[in-house]
Write a sequence for this structure.
């Protein structure tokens, strides 16, 4: 995570080192977040820690700023 956050690496590279495809991981994370939301469960702690708000995303997955 530190390499990604500091711009020294990418999710694609780091997940490839673990034998994972980053697109598949991202899609799975999105599905799990939506499933938790549908079941009335809180978001995972990493979502809260990152300040991510799925309800505040546009259709392209870009965070929208509140006006």
């Amino acid at each position: 995570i530190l390499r990604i956050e500091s711009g020294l690496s990418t999710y694609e590279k780091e997940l490839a080192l673990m034998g994972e495809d980053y697109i598949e991981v991202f899609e799975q994370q999105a599905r799990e977040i939506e499933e938790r939301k549908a079941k009335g469960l809180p978001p995972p702690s990493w979502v809260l820690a990152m300040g991510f708000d799925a309800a505040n995303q546009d259709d392209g997955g870009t965070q929208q700023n509140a006006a």
